[in-house]
Write a structure and sequence with these properties.
The chain is mainly β and about 220 residues long. The protein is built from one helix and eleven strands.
């Protein structure tokens, strides 16, 4: 019988987020994070065969994510009108993370990324979505200024996502706080739901206290 509470949910995690000054790049790979340290994925405590690797970094201009998904038989595909049968990634960021706050504030942002959108000629698309019961709604964001690059690989794909700090309320002062609240869930049409820690059985989509903490490195050089 599986445990009532997954092992990944038994601890509060604070992970180190390195600084990468040259993101985004104008040549070659968008972020250049292929050789950077992997982010610990608490879900591996529930299933050590989790087919996801995540690398992430920050700089004063924004947040970069590299997700590597393996174990697939087909290239990613999808359309927003049928998310249950599509491949997409849900990203949650809180620039004023406080562990006891259980409702999203104006500093919380929800981002949905579809690696391949069949309704957009197979290009990647990004949507900023509402968070249920958010205390104060964030200002409207222009999703077009995000950047996404998808690389097909044997048995899966790599997706690089650049989120400009201008789209994350409060990011301009992030070096002063030194931390971010962060969470993501990969919705995969072949592999199922692949959460960073726990899935939709828990209120991760609306409750920032369930998100992980990323501690920013090298904040003292910001200025």
């Amino acid at each position: 019988m599986p445990p009532t509470i997954p092992p990944s949910f038994l601890f509060h995690y604070q992970l180190s987020l390195p600084r990468a000054e040259d993101m985004p790049r104008t040549r070659g790979r968008l972020l250049g994070l292929q050789n950077s340290p992997e982010l610990f994925i608490p879900a591996t405590l529930n299933d050590e065969n989790t087919p996801v690797r995540i690398r992430a970094a920050w700089n004063p201009r924004g947040l970069g994510l590299l997700l590597q998904i393996r174990g697939r038989q087909h290239p990613p595909a999808g359309r927003w009108k049928d998310p249950g049968n599509s491949d997409w990634i849900h990203i949650l960021v809180d620039t004023r993370h406080t562990s006891g706050v259980q409702r999203a504030t104006e500093f919380c942002t929800s981002i949905a990324v579809m690696p391949v959108d069949d309704d957009a000629d197979g290009n990647s698309t990004v949507r900023f979505t509402d968070i249920s019961r958010q205390r104060t709604l964030a200002t409207s964001q222009a999703a077009e200024s995000t950047r996404v690059d998808v690389q097909q690989t044997s048995g899966g794909y790599d997706i690089e996502i650049w989120i400009p700090g201008t789209l994350l309320p409060g990011f301009a002062q992030i070096a002063e706080t030194g931390i971010l609240g962060f969470y993501c869930v990969i919705h995969d049409s072949e592999l199922g739901e692949l959460p960073l820690s726990v899935g939709d059985d828990f209120p991760v989509a609306i409750n920032p206290s369930t998100w992980l903490v990323l501690a920013l490195q090298d904040t003292q050089t910001t200025g």
